[in-house]
Amino acid sequence: MSLEYLEKTETENDLAGEQEVPQAQVGFGTPYYTCVLIGCLILVVLVQMFAGFDLSNSRVAFDKNAFRYGDEYWRILTGMTAHGFLLHFLLNTYAFFSFGRLFEFLSSGSHLAIVFLLGGICGNVLSLLFLPDVPSVGASGGIIALVGYLAVYAFRRRQFVSPQFRKSLMMNIGFILVFGLILYDVVDNYGHIGGLLAGAVYAYFQIPSDVYKDPRETGPAAQGAGMASLGIFIAASLLSVYLIITAIN
Fold this sequence. Notes:
- The chain is mainly α.
- The chain is 75% helix and 0% strand.
- The chain has one domain: Rhomboid-like fold (Up-down Bundle), CATH 1.20.1540.
């Protein structure tokens, strides 16, 4: 294990156990992938606010019937880029930045983009299987996939992560599930569960079992997949903007 990795993992432990440590001391860098993905969500929600959420979601939400019977296959991606209302967007982007910044500190932006896209798609697939007639919208599946990844990271790197940090992650997961059960009529629980499982499974295979290997390291394949995932989401966001604007006219 490199000296740099040892120093950084000690900082991770400080972060996990001391929530009051200032950001500058923790050593967060700029979470570029997180910022780009959130920028896409901001672009789409601005267009939604101009067009109206009902009209825009009629064109880009993950409408399962349109997906299955109308050959509108893009909806499995565009549904991730839009939101049902402004508060929905604000809550999701706040959670995205919080978990995304931590993810890029512990792992890499390439893996974040892959996990986010994979979580969103898997969440929509599970929702399609169990809620085939209920439209879905929002980036929650991809965001919760980041939580699933971080939870596995916390247990596979328990030597460097405090029990308080693991407990905090488990409480977050529990809150998400309980919140979804309470508001089952407005929350897509299957989308959340699908995203959570996707992130956890990806972490299980991606994070080395050897604690002397730095999980931040990414090879050309992972970097390429990360850029491709980022590009796919950017393209889906631009498609959402186009579909919403054409719906106005």
